[in-house]
Prior knowledge:
The complex is a heterodimer of chains A (95) and B (482). Chain A has 95 residues and is mainly α. In chain A, 40% of the residues lie in helices and 7% in strands. Chain A has helices spanning 5-14, 21-42, 73-78; strands at 83-84, 87-91. Chain A has a two-stranded antiparallel ribbon. In chain A, a hairpin with a 2-residue loop joins strand 1 (83-84) and strand 2 (87-91). The relative contact order of chain A is 0.09. Chain B folds into 3 domains: 3-290, no CATH class; 297-410, no CATH class; 419-481, Arc Repressor Mutant, subunit A, CATH 1.10.10.410. In chain B, strand 5 (103-108) and strand 6 form a beta hairpin. The longest helix of chain B is centred in the middle third of the chain and has 20 residues, at 220-239. At the A-B interface, helix 3 and strand 2 of A face helix 1, strand 7, strand 8 and strand 15 of B.
Amino acid sequence: MSIQREDVEKIARLAKLQINEEQLETVASELSNILGLVDQLQAVNTDNIEPMAHPTDAVQILRADQVTETNNREAFQKIAPATENGLYLVPKVIE
Amino acid sequence: MQWETVIGLEIHAQLTTQSKIFSGSSTTFGADANTQASAVDLAMPGTLPVPNEEAFRKAIMFGLAIDADINKRSVFDRKNYFYPDLPKGYQTTQLDHPIVGAGHVEIQLKDGSKKSIRIHHAHLEEDAGKSLHEDFHGMSGIDLNRAGTPLIEIVTEPDMNTAEEAVAFARKLHGLVSSIGICDGEMSQGSLRFDVNISIRPVGEEKLGTRTETKNLNSFRFMEKAIAHEVERQIELIEDGGEVKQETRLYDGDKDISRSMRSKEEANDYRYFPCPDLLPVVFDDSYIEAIRETLPELPDVKQARFIEQLGLSEYDAGILSAENTMANFFEATAKTCNDSKLAANWIMGELSARLNSEDKSISNIDLKAEQLGSLISRIKDGTVSSSGAKKVFDALWIGEDDNVDKIIEAKGLKQVSDTGALEAIVDEVLAGMTDQIEQYKSADDKKRKKLMGGFMGPLMKASKGQGNPKLFNQILAKKLNS
Lengths: 95, 482
């Protein structure tokens, strides 16, 4: 399977990544290579085999329902580019 | 052309846990912005989620309450999309292996008919934060307190065909999740949010039409209006030669208008994949059965009990059993006055009318069930008339006094039930009504009944409204027929 320039543009847009015009070809061919590896894996017959959700065969450990976190807003907001009234400020997003 | 409406619902219910689904942050509503957002909730690099067992326990309770299959192995997936109130860039949710599989909920309509609505599945996921678009110098403000609050998303099959059915289902579900205590049901705080998928098709057509999704309807009234509005919009669109576009729409209940929020074409590309940070969650049968033991009496079972043991009609029992707070209020009232039927009448009549007109719910009123119960006892033993009781109810409602007997006393609403005193009034009144008495005596039985009523008015007036009408009737009948 090969990835076209348009595919790279689309997934870059969805992932909010900026890919330069001159990088497009390289990225497309590198991604195609990765998918080539996947194609090789696809050749294995996996009929009647349930896909694994995780590479290890372990089971998730759960946590008791207790509040263990305290308010660290001040520390977190020190590294934020912009805050006001306790809110994080971001470029205006409204649909 | 005749059109058929097809409706499916997606419901997001916040689970009443103390802490978030993947972190130990508090879930308390209304805290200062970002004071309940930990490193995990903020998606700081290097953090890892650890799931909250209580969220699973509550999701399983829901599954058992709707008679659904519980998936003993469930898996979390990442749903990728970009929005600043979702700092990780993906929502952790369950796609192919949700905790709750197919189930069903039975609804009852106003005409008494019943319908079973199938639940496709219900899955666990995390809530997003909140974006505030007021003016922050041209920027948006983000509050991540809500990010990571556990949600159960309940997805129905497209089994509803009218706004009435959809609202009946929504009310039923609201009653169910609050009765089993997994969600507080506070729609105004966003604890329970309804998204409605609507399409139309010509009557008799098998294939579903293109659907739109109307998001975040936070009251039953708006849901009903939004459905009516959207159905009309789609019919007009198609009959004018247009096409319905698959899109998400926002409904403004105050203005009764809707607008397109986003077209699903590209935004829909969520690139789901299994979350590598989380392993499959596995439960065994004994774990699930132990949860079944903790389920309280479900509304449907309660309804059957109200019918069989308390002699209520199916309709009354349905309404009184739907919500736990309502059911508890009813049972406490009925216990105090020892009369289920009268308790049901007062709650569904006077009390419900008052709740509706003042837009209140049982949980936020001053009136206590025991007070209503004592008032009903006082009607039964003849202390107050039903019209006098309404005045006592008004006084209790506004909290004038909390003691029924004191109110009856203070307002002079006590009925006179002393036969001697009543007889004296009857004699006095009849003395001045000789013509009417003659008319009565010469009339036949059928006419007499009607003429009897003519004496009641003056009697009530003479007793300043305090005479016991039942006793007046008896004395009057004795005197006139002698």
